[in-house]
Design goal:
Blueprint (H helix, E strand, L loop, with lengths): L27 H12 L2 H12 L4 H29 L3 H9 L5 H34 L15 H51 L22 H15 L1 H6 L1 H4 L5 H11 L1 H22 L6 H6 L4 H22 L1 H10 L6 H14 L2 H7 L3 H27 L24 H11 L3 H8 L9 H8 L1 H16 L4 H10 L1
Length: about 500
């Protein structure tokens, strides 16, 4: 259905319409390249640092990252199936379960999180340009901080320059992003081996970080506390890609076949993520030998290199951040904002809105003010996105049996309009899935304001994504029992 459905509708535009056969050009290696491109990013590189600081050994940290990505791959493949089968984006798929109006809620939830990430990654990219200029000019540049902003003029210009580089890809659409991911993925793999060779040569080995025991062994600082650290760490690592687990149909709708999206994602996500974590541990271990301390920030490490190495390293990091940010944090909210008002907002306009929010939010201030950034941020939004994933999976596989009446997804008065465009079963399931995690989140994010939260709620929050997806899935399944057949009749007629 590439043409607008018959009847008056405010739910359709060309960007949200199912993809045509001609648009389905993505093969398995495009998906593998997409994931390699997204995995090789600064936040993913530094995840191991948070685990080792929490007391894990290098091997425990790498295995935790790998396991989390193997877990999140499952909902990724399940939800991605609908994108390939029907050619629809996440914001349209959500209409089947939440209703034609209600789908704006999960779309907005996903978009807000992505805008936060987009702004933060844009700031990281700008800081790389700033670091590169500092190395070239031999010291700090930019002078005093600007009033009200908290950064100097050169930092601001570097941020805006990186913002502008990404804006070019917004203007040129999805195909430009696919080409960027496909062409840069092999380069990133090559650079990883070059980096390993460089640190091994400079440090005369890889250092002792990989062989160092965890703090959980008998006699260690945190003896017997492994599981208390492991579960929240695993939840945070799952949360890292929880956003993509929802909006993966935005990409799989361009797949040539189900096999392409399944093989491509299975090859591209868990193993590269585990290998990147190992690379981070090895390189950081060598940095202890080279500089006397563990340097987990690859930008900081690159700035300490000499000659052409620093230029090459920072340019690669720049390309890396552009490709990750566009794929992981731009495509999703662009479709999501478009779905809020399809007649007014196209995919490109949604991208412009995302880019605009990235400037207004002043991401450097968010990073300054957030305590325990990785765990509070990642576990916190996984508590919101887990329930949505649970509802989508139950609706598509158990309620609909993977059969959707596609044209009805674009009609104001179709079978997916439920009551006034809202499916109360999905709304109730979402709220019930989120509620148990709220006390734990408040205690984690604002410990001084919410010190009296009970241990039970803290424990539940440790498993936030898992708790949310399980509860919402169960509640939705119970509330929708016996309600699938009326929604299926139009599908059989079309």
């Amino acid at each position: 259905m590439s043409k607008q459905p018959s009847g008056s509708t405010q739910l359709w535009n060309e960007d949200l319409a199912p993809t045509s056969a001609a648009q389905r050009t993505w093969r398995w290696y495009h998906f593998a390249a997409l994931w390699v491109g997204m995995v090789m990013c600064i936040p993913a590189y530094t995840l191991s640092a948070s685990l080792i600081e929490g007391g894990m050994s290098g091997y425990q940290a790498v295995l935790t990252v790998f396991l989390a990505n193997a877990i999140v791959l499952l909902p990724m493949l399940l939800i991605g199936h609908a994108g390939t089968k029907y050619g629809i984006p996440y914001a349209v798929l959500a209409r089947a379960s939440f209703g034609t109006r209600g789908a704006r809620l999960p779309a907005l939830m996903r978009a807000i999180v992505a805008c936060g990430w987009y702004g933060i990654q844009t700031w990281f990219g700008g800081q790389m340009i700033y670091t590169l200029l500092g190395v070239m000019f031999g010291g700090e540049i930019g002078g005093a901080k600007l009033a009200g902003l908290g950064i100097n003029s050169v930092q601001l210009l570097c941020f805006l320059a990186f913002w502008g580089i990404q804006f070019w890809y917004i203007v040129h659409g999805m195909d430009a992003i696919r080409k960027l991911e496909t062409y840069t993925a092999p380069l990133k793999i090559l650079i990883c081996f070059v980096l390993l060779g460089w640190v091994h040569n400079k440090a005369g080995g890889f250092g002792d970080l990989l062989s160092a025991p965890s703090q959980f062994v008998e006699g260690g600082k945190k003896a017997g506390q492994f599981w208390a650290t492991f579960w929240p760490s695993l939840t945070a690592m799952v949360g890292f890609w929880a956003t993509l687990a929802l909006n993966i149909p935005d990409f799989t709708r361009f797949a040539k076949s189900q096999r392409d999206q399944i093989v491509g994602q299975s090859v591209g996500l868990p193993v590269p993520m585990g290998l990147l974590a190992m690379l981070a541990v090895i390189v950081t271990s060598a940095s202890v030998v080279l500089y006397g301390k563990a340097i987990w920030d690859p930008v900081d490490l690159a700035s300490r290199m000499t000659g052409a190495a620093v230029l090459i390293a920072l340019l690669v990091l720049l390309i890396d951040t552009v490709s990750v940010n566009l794929a992981a944090n731009l495509v999703g909210p662009a479709y999501d904002f478009s779905s809020l008002a399809p007649k007014l907002i196209s995919y490109k306009t949604g991208g412009y809105i995302t880019a605009g929010i990235a400037i207004v939010m002043m991401p450097w201030k968010i990073l300054e003010s957030t305590q325990g950034y990785i765990f509070t941020w990642l576990i916190g939004y996984s508590a919101l996105l887990g329930p949505i994933a649970g509802i989508l999976i139950v609706d598509y596989y158990f309620v609909r049996k993977t059969e959707l009446a596609v044209e009805q997804l674009y009609l104001d008065d179709g079978v997916y309009s439920y009551g006034g465009g809202w499916n109360m079963a999905a709304l109730v399931a979402f709220v019930v899935g989120v509620l148990p995690n709220i006390p734990g989140f408040l205690n984690a994010a604002f410990p001084a304001s919410f010190p009296q939260v009970g241990d039970g709620f803290k424990t539940i929050y440790t498993y936030a994504w898992f708790v949310g997806i399980a509860i919402s899935a169960l509640v939705y399944a119970v509330m929708m029992k016996g309600k699938a057949l009326p929604a299926m009749r139009p599908a059989a007629q079309s």
